[in-house]
Amino acid sequence: MVLDVLFQLELADLARPVAYADLATGLGVDLGTRVPLADAREAVLEQRRRRGMVLQEDDHDTWSCGSFFTNPILSADDFDTLARRVRETTDADLVPPRFAAGDGMVKTSAAWLIDKAGFGKGYGLPGPAALSTKHVLAVTNRGEARAQDVVDLAREVRDGVQERFGIRLVNEPVLVGLEL
Questions:
Q1: Which pLDDT does position 90 carry in this prediction?
Q2: Active site (catalytic) residues
Q3: Gene3D superfamilies, alphabetically (predicted)?
């Protein structure tokens, strides 16, 4: 529970340098470019809308807490083990996404792991909780879900990814009174 927040804002006409590749593509700029704040805001909202992460009353894909799992950060050796396991359990040409995470660490995509482990968009439908039909990282309430339904689905996905690829996903939302 958040009881107090302090923000320090910077007056500026330009956003911070664009550091996210999809955002740079959506804005038509190179990484590191500064763009007008209004342009950055609209581009971020557009990306979020496409993924069902801007609340809309009539769209159950938006009835979520956003991305449920964080992207795993692995040692280089652990990433190599993951890549080998992916080759052994899926199409031999499939390679997990790899992003530098500093200090020799590697970040990979939780959404990619979820999808390749067999939990595609809409997994869980027609149940009360399901993965979004727009983005597999969002565990959604289809209208009648209880917290336990959401946790049960998230646990199934987390355990399925671990069984398939040996990677244990970590939930991003803090659960109160429930455990994954």
A1: 83
A2: 67, 172
A3: UDP-N-acetylenolpyruvoylglucosamine reductase, C-terminal domain
| pTM (whole model) above 0.85 | no
* Nearest C-alpha neighbor of 40 from the set 12, 20, 15: 15
Q: Are 129 and 139 in contact (CB under 8 A)?
A: yes
Name the token pair of 109. 């995509």
Q: Could you report the per-residue pLDDT of 84-105, keeping only the tens digit for each?
A: 999 998 877 899 999 999 999 9
- Listed residue (116, 24, 111, 103) closest to 71, CA to CA: 111
Write the DSSP assignment of 44-68 as a string of letters.
HHHHHHHTT-S--TT-GGG-EEEE-
Q: Encoding tokens for residue 2?
A: 């958040």
In the numeric block, the tokens 């027609």 are attached to 126
* Domains present along the chain, CATH in parentheses: 21-50 (no CATH), 60-165 (3.90.78.10)
